[in-house]
Amino acid sequence: MSYLEKIDKTRLPRHIAIIMDGNGRWAKERGYERIFGHQAGVESVRQTTEAAAEIGVEYLTLYAFSTENWERPQAEVDALMSLLVDSIQRETPTLNKNNIRLAAIGNLNRLPAGVREKLQACISETAKNTGLTLVLALSYSARWEIVNAVREICEEVERGDYLRDEIDDRLFAQRLTTRSIPDPDLMIRTSGELRISNFLLWQLAYAELYFTPVHWPDFRKDDLYRAIYEFQRRERRFGK
Ligand code: IPE
Ligand code: IPE
Ligand code: MG
Question: Which ligand is in closest contact with the Cα of 216?
Fold first, then answer.
């Protein structure tokens, strides 16, 4: 029986965030280059996005490239960037067909101009869609985002926009790249690593964390449904 039938559709997580990990290991285990794993991971992105949209999740954030990933060998970085451009371009019609809106968070200025332009084009072309919002975290790191927010707030206080004592968590959250997105209810990491790796440190404060040994290229719709099912079996207390 699919996990889909076990899910209570009235209690879905509004926002699911995923650390898509294990592409390199998946490829190595098969005797291929790491990039082969990244290529295979594109199908998992397609399936997961479709599954989230079909079931009625409002936001899906995918950690596709971290600030630290710039330190990988240039050939791997280049391959990941061209994979990104190709996928975005190819998938835009499908996103529109499925009423999915694309958004991006991260230090997008660091992306090669070509990638940024294709990304912006897809964001504009899907802006009017009202179904799932698919958020790509690209050149993203939570510490970068938090430091940026602090700088912005300091400038505003210096300018006299508000007083230091008026800074609260609501105002702070409004200075993050996720300002228009609710906090994730569920965070999934694939491939067995039990860490956050600089992902959404502020926003995950009360998220339920779900770890699976499945490598990202093997992640399919039922893996997402299973994570949602496990999420629904937990009791969220929010400290109360
Ligand atoms: C995740 O897979 C994709 C990115 C970080 C871009 P990895 O490339 O981290 O694969 P592993 O973790 O080395 O197996
Ligand atoms: C986190 O995975 C970043 C992405 C999935 C994009 P990494 O593979 O880069 O993280 P570490 O090195 O295992 O912490
Ligand atoms: Mg990894």
Answer: 1
Give the whole-angstrom CA distance, residue 23 versus residue 42: 10
Q: What is the pLDDT of residues 37-89, one digit of tens each?
A: 999 999 999 999 999 999 999 999 999 999 999 999 999 999 999 999 999 99
Rounded CA separation 111/117 (Å): 10
The number of the ligand nearest the C-alpha atom of 19 reads 2
Structural domain for 217, as ranges: 13-232
| Type of residue at 131 | G
Q: Is 20 in the pocket of ligand 1 (CB under 6 A)?
A: yes
Catalytic, 109? Answer no
pLDDT tens profile 88-98: 999 999 999 99
CATH number of the domain that 215 lies in? 3.40.1180.10
